Amino acid sequence: MRSDKAAIWRMAGFGVAALLFSVLVIAVRARWVPLESLDRGVADGLNALVAPHRPLVTLMGGISRLGSFGVLAWLVAIAAILLLVRRRLRLAGFLVATTLGGLVLDPTLKLAVGRLRPVVERPVAHGGGNSFPSGHALNSFICYAVLLVVFLPALPARWRRPALLAGGVVVLLIGFSRLALGVHFLSDVTSPSPRPRVRHRRPHNRPGRPHEASIGSDNVSLRPLDPRLGAHLRGRRPDR
User: Fold this and answer.
1) Residues of 54-74 as b/e, b for ≥16 C-beta within 10 angstroms?
2) Which helix (H) or strand (E) holds 67?
3) Among 150, 132, 119, 114, which residue's Cα sits nearest to residue 187?
4) 136 and 67 in contact (C-beta within 8 Å)?
């Protein structure tokens, strides 16, 4: 019963996120005046704050590179190779397929919305193509989130929440850097998206017994692991 309720809440969350994102796309496409005014005000204000300070521009540029195609591609490639070496074929396929999905989604939305990039008084960076959505923000969210979903169960329990927090901070900083560089509007980098969560279930087995990670799109939980399977994953022959 509890799992059914959790599934319903997750479906409702995804539905609300999809609805809000659809409303945002329509508002941007229709050039809704209050949203346009807010976007331009933020873009002009940040440009006036950042542009005069060259070290700050350099810092924002460095943070922005963390969401570039080159960095994300290397991260995904290294992670996929590690999974293949460990013979985790499904996880490797999930990682690559999700990342490729983001690469398809970004230009599709840019073409559908057709929003021009901000024009600021003191340009400090250049962005190619249309503005909505931010490819750096979208793809970094997808890549870092899927990396957390795949590798979070391998971390000790005490490191999981810090890892989630660090991943979220990196994604937020990448989005802010695109605003600070004047290459995107606020609404380009802010869109409702489901967030990965970690939920721990109290084990009902004896102490010291290994556990496995059950990986889902919105949830990572722990449940008891068959000792023979655990021995196999650690590269040892199971005891008969």
Assistant:
1) eeebeebeebbebbeeebbee
2) none
3) 132
4) yes
Across the strands, what pairs with 221?
214
CA-based end-to-end distance of the chain: 37
Cα separation of 217 and 235, whole Å? 28
In a domain, 21, yes or no: yes
The dihedrals phi and psi of 207, each to the nearest 5 degrees, come to: -60, 145
Q: Which domain holds residue 162?
A: 2-198
Does some domain include residue 58? yes
The pLDDT tens digits for 1-49 are 566 776 787 778 777 877 888 888 888 888 899 999 999 999 999 999 9
Its sign, for the CA torsion 201, 206, 207, 210, is negative
Half-sphere exposure of 155 (CA within 13 A, CB side): 17
Q: Which residue has better confidence, 145 or 229?
A: 145
206 belongs to a structural domain = no
Assigned domain for 142 exists: yes
Strands 219-224 and 211-215: antiparallel
